[in-house]
Structures are given as C-alpha cells and as structure tokens.
Amino acid sequence: MSTLSAVAGAAIYYGANKARAMETLPSYEVTFSVPLKCDSCVDDIKSALSKVDGISSTSFSIPSRLVTINSTSPPSTLISTIQSTGRDAILRGSGKPNSAAVCILEIPPSSSIPPSERLTSPSTSSARTATTITKSKYDSPVRGLARLIQLSEQLTLLDLTLTSLPNGKYSVSVRKTGDITRGSASLGQVYTGEDENQKRDGELGVIEVNEEGRGNLIGEVSWRVWELVGRGMCVERVDGDGVGHGEEEGEKQEVVGVVARSPGVWENEKVVCGCSGKTVWEEREEMVGKGIL
User: What is the pLDDT of residue 46?
Assistant: First the structure.
C-alpha cells in the first residue's frame, strides 16, 4: 500500500503504479487563505503541517493571510490539517496555470425529492441508511467535491470527498458529456478517450462512505486535466459485485457534476467577489452550509 494511503483523510489509493511511494510523486504548489493574525498562528500551523508526509516547503504571509505549500499530499489533507489548529482554510489556487480543475457533485436536477424529505438532515442515522439520497435540511443538493491537479504530462492527482450520503460503496467514473440534467442517463457512457484504438480507463475507482456519511478517494489518474474539463463525473452506489444499484423507489443512488477549470497558484487573488459582494470568508461559510468542504 502506498504511503499516501496512510495520510489523514485518505481512504484509498490507486493508480497505474500502486507501489509508487509518495516521495517519488511530483510535487505541486498550493495556496490557501487562512486567518493569520500573528506569529503564534504561523507557529501553530507549522507544527501541525510538520506531521504531514510529503510537504517539502511552506511559506506564510500574515499581511495577505496566505499560506503557500509545496507538497505531494492532497489538498483535502492540507485543509483538514490547518483546520485542526482551529483555523479555516480556503484553497485559492493549485498547480500551474491550466493544470487544475474542480467538480461539485450534487443530486441530479431531475431528482424529485418530496418536500418532507428535504427537511431531513442527512447527518441523522435514518438518512444515512436510507435507500435514496435526499436533500439536506438546507435544501442543498451538493454531496461532494472532486479536485484534480495535473502533476505531469500523464499524471493527475484526484482528491475526492463525499458528504451526507448513505453508507456503502460508490463507483466514480468520467462520462462522455457534461449534461447532468438527468444524471447518468444524460451524461452518457463512461469516457474512454477519443482514440478508439487506444482506449483509456474512465473508471476512476471505488469509494466507501462510512456510517457518518463521509468518504474520501485519493489517487493518481492517467488523464490530463484539459481532457476532462467540460465532461461529467458520476458517483454511483454499487453492490458487492461492483454493479450499480439502478433505481430504487424512483430515485437512482448517484450524484453527478461537471468538471470545470479552477485557478492555478496566484491566479486568484480576489478578497471580495465582484458578483455577490461577499468576502471570501462569507462565501466559504455559504459553501460549507451547502456541503462543500
């Protein structure tokens, strides 16, 4: 098992070379907004990050409230480590320009959830063990987030987190289209590339959601980020044989999203959103309420 699988927050590691040690993976640079107030804040975060494998360097700017890290550890691990000090962290950019992407995973728009179920918190036991995926008490369809960071020409880091889903195994795949209106039905078949003579693996792995409704999938995939932007990603519950559950009680057990480009390091320096007028911290609070961690 790779060293990466032992990192906090990682549930599984997979890839073309499963025996690859984390220290041999190409590193990437990532920046976070963190509410740094003094040297004590910096010391606390430095101490926490020193316990994470794969970090080669860190730098801090108290005036800009920015933390910059060179690492092979996934963003979710770095975020949870910073949060363990009692401070939040907002990912502002990762990797080189045009080498990063993100996919917000949500209940398909066509899903018809009864209003009574929309008020059920997915953190309750009954919701976790339900056979259908229901909306949260915040009426948010969001159930997870996937980050993609290209480390080299044929190697991309996948960092996927699921929240508020029924306990079980879920298969993750890239689909041909980015049409999520009818879930997997409109996303099309698993995407295997444009070259019919050299098909690629669009099945990205299997993620297990625990009793608390959370799951993480971290690993390397042999796709370039630009090949995935605009395509759909489907996370579908599967049984022990890896076969999709299909529809139960009128609702298919899946969440879907569209892969979109995200900023590289230093490509996003905004403090206030030009559209909403909200600060990055106000936006962060809103996103956490929707289930995006």
Answer: 96
